[in-house]
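agent> call fold_tool(seq_1)
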Amino acid sequence: MERWCICADIPKIDNRTEVLVLRHLLESRKSTNTARIAALALRRMEIVDVDARRPPDIAGWLASKGKVWLVFPGGTTADVEHERPDAVLLVDGTWKQARKMVRSHGALLALPRLSLPGGDPAVWRLRTTKLRDAQSSMEAIAEALRIVESSAHAEALHRLHQLHVARVLLARGAIPTRD
């Protein structure tokens, strides 16, 4: 079991920009969820699980967070050249779940959007998708922090992501061991 654990390898990242994650309730139960791993590394990160049957007061929650940019394609693009947010917000779930969460909360629709470059197709992932530009939540968090804060933070998260994926695949027997 110890050879698959990543606990000793989780970096401590002192991010200035808070990372907020609205995670679909079904996503919270998945062992492949990378937002929870990112939360172990980032000093300033908060995850809120969203149950469609009992939606949280997102507008009230966001009001206390300062200037927030939504990491999501489309909408009014954030001015990355002249501004920096206090927080970046990601919606965590399948694309169908994420789109539905954004559309159903007016407070999210009103936020400036931070669109990310597509994910690297050569990177190993735990889930497959037909979407060419898809990436895991941890990869999206890394790229958002690269844009608004530091490439060093992004690189540390990308290394952690690859380690996590490799260990999970190893535990599943998807990568042959040298033992």
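agent> call fold_tool(seq_2)
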Amino acid sequence: MAMHRCLFDQIKGRIQPGDIIAFSGKSNFSRLIRLATRSVVSHVGIVRESGNWIDVIESVVFEKDPVSGEDIDGIRCNRMKNRVESYDGFVWWLPLSEKARFNLNQEKMRQFLKITEDKKYDMPQAIRAALDIIEENPFFDLSTYNQEDFDAFFCSELATAALRAGGVIKNINSSEVTPANLCAFKIFADDYYQLKGRRKPLDEYNEIDPEGFGVL
């Protein structure tokens, strides 16, 4: 596995639907996520469209709309170039592997993302999914376990569910997947790219078989 550092404009022509964009922010909420999941990653989005415009779909909370200044709570579409330039923190591009891209039905992925457009951020499930350190103790298994529920979405739940809808992952509980888990799933190319921030490789990148993850 190799991480490369580059600017968005240097690789924008290679980004494709289904690729994951990983973030590490500086807010208190981002710090809590990193602490709970023992990871440098605090947030993820998924590429819906590529070409002249690269659209990234994310479920966000505690952020403000750069135009209106209003608080954002839930799923939104961002132009990737604007998102990278304005983000206060680290950004990585994780391209899907050739196998994952071959299996991806882009239209089914887009259809799934379309029906989620008005959903809110799922804070309770985000918190429980992040408590992996507690789940090491069997006593806490039921109290922190998430039954898959798509009434609302946290960021990695949305991206994972979209990849499952598109056929990249067959059997998984998307509501149990943290940003760190998603980046560790073995669905990505060997090489990945840091687009912003001082050099910071991802821990456990592309190492874990996602099939059956979080399924009881």
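agent> summarizing second result for user.
Residues 2-196 form a domain with the endopeptidase fold (from Nostoc punctiforme) fold (CATH 3.90.1720.10). The two ends are 31 Å apart (CA to CA).
agent> awaiting next instruction.
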